[in-house]
Amino acid sequence: MLTDGVAYRVDGGNPTTTAAFVTALSAALPEQRDPAGSAKVAVTELEQPERHTPSLKYRARVAVAGIPVLAYLGYTIWVGIAHGLEVIFVILGSVPFFLGLLLLFTAYVLILEQVVLTLRGITVVGTFGFRTKDGAAWYKFTDMDGVERTHRGKNRGRHNRITYDPRDPVVASSQLAWGPVVLKASASLASGLPLLGIGSAMAFLIVG
Question: Any transmembrane segments, and where (predicted)?
C-alpha cells in the first residue's frame, strides 16, 4: 500500500523471496516518504531468458539421434515389402523402442554433463533475476568472458551458487552433487532398458 492509497500486489513465490524483496525495498525507500507514492512506481514486464544459438555439440547430438531413426524407418519399409502385415509389429514396437533409447540417451547426457562440470566447471554466485510464468526461478551470472547469462535453478533466495562449463556456458548446474544425478540416471536406465528390450523384441524377433 502506497502513501496515496494505491495498492500493488507483488507475488513473492515463497517466504525467502518475499523477505528479500521487502528488505531491499525498505532499504531503498527514503526516510521522508513522498505523499504521491504511486507517481514513483514503474511497472515493467518480466525479462525472458536469452535465446541460445544451437552449439556444434547440440547439432552433433541431433545428427547422431537421427541415425537410428533413419535406420528404423528403412527397416520398417523393408519389412513392409518383404513380410507384408508383419510390419504392424515393427510399427507398434517403435514406441517402446524409441522411448527406451530416449531414456538411455537422457541418462548418458546427465552423467556426461556432471563429469564435465566436476572436471572443469567454474563456480560463481548467481543473482536472482526474474521468475517466469511457470514459477521457475532464473538466476543471472557472468561467465569468464564477461557475458551475462541466465540459469534456471531451484529457488534458493536472492543468491545461488552456479557451476558452468567455460567451454559451453549453457551447461550449468546449481546443485553440483552426484547423488541426485545418479538417482535420475538410474531411474532413466531402469525404465529405458526394459522398454528398449520390448521394442526390440517386437520389431526384430517376432518378424520373420
Answer: 62-81, 87-111
